[in-house]
Design brief:
This protein is of the alpha/beta class. 54% of the residues lie in helices and 13% in strands. The protein is built from eleven helices and six strands. The longest helix has 15 residues. The N and C termini lie far apart (54 Å).
Length: 220
């Protein structure tokens, strides 16, 4: 039998997609022990809403037109806001994960997290405990344990460990869907990694990225 939480956790949902906000509001409203106090469509809005409503937890997306999540998290931290910020986003790249955590986020979950995992994460965040999705925790641990890249190899140091994994799979002719399944990430995240790989290698497409990867020794 599920135990009813001892107290109600209050939330503000920040996401630029109305459908996502509606879905999260409905999900938390239907669950015992939660109350959604308000919503915001971007980081700037979020600062005003959080300042007014003072929720226990802010569910924060990262990439939003009109004001990103990382800047909002940093400002809430600077203001000494009581609210804990739990990032809920599609992206798990180093360029998203690390700045959000460094800015003061209490936790970081991906939008494909199971409902019960999200509920547990919100309760943990409200209690001041850090919460990281398994994929993000693994990435951070890998970053801590991986020796610094050889500075003589700028291409190797430019690509993150996950971006190299994606490039290796692309070189094998693996589709985005197959890459997502193999690495346990979403297709949207695969596309984000590929965008970063193309930019860092100066490649216009998958074939060019693979060619550059072999040319620079990244693919062996």
């Amino acid at each position: 039998m599920t135990e009813t939480p001892a107290r109600t956790v209050t939330l503000v949902v920040v996401d630029d997609h109305p459908v996502v906000r509606d879905g999260l509001r409905g999900m938390f409203t239907a669950a015992p022990g939660f109350e959604v106090l308000g919503e915001a469509a971007d980081g700037v809005d979020a600062l005003a809403v959080v300042g007014e409503l003072d929720p226990d937890v802010v569910l924060m997306d990262l990439r939003m037109p009109g004001g990103g999540g990382v800047a909002a998290i940093a400002e809430l931290t600077r203001r000494g806001a009581r609210s804990k910020v739990l990032v809920l986003t599609t992206y798990d790249t180093d360029s998203d994960t690390l700045p959000a955590i460094e800015a003061g986020a209490t936790g970081y979950l991906l939008k494909d997290a199971p409902r019960e995992e999200l509920f547990a994460a919100v309760r943990a965040a409200a209690d001041g405990r850090s919460v990281l999705s398994p994929a993000v925790a693994s990435r951070l641990m890998t970053r801590v344990r991986t020796p610094a890249a050889d500075p003589a190899d700028p291409a190797e140091s430019a690509l993150s460990a996950r971006e190299r994994e994606v490039l290796v799979l692309v070189a094998r002719g693996t589709t985005n869907r197959e890459i997502a399944a193999e690495l346990f990430i979403s297709e949207a995240t695969v596309k984000t990694h590929l965008t970063h790989v193309f930019a860092k290698l100066g490649a216009k497409d998958r074939a060019a990225a693979v060619a550059v990867g072999y040319d620079r020794g990244i693919l062996g």
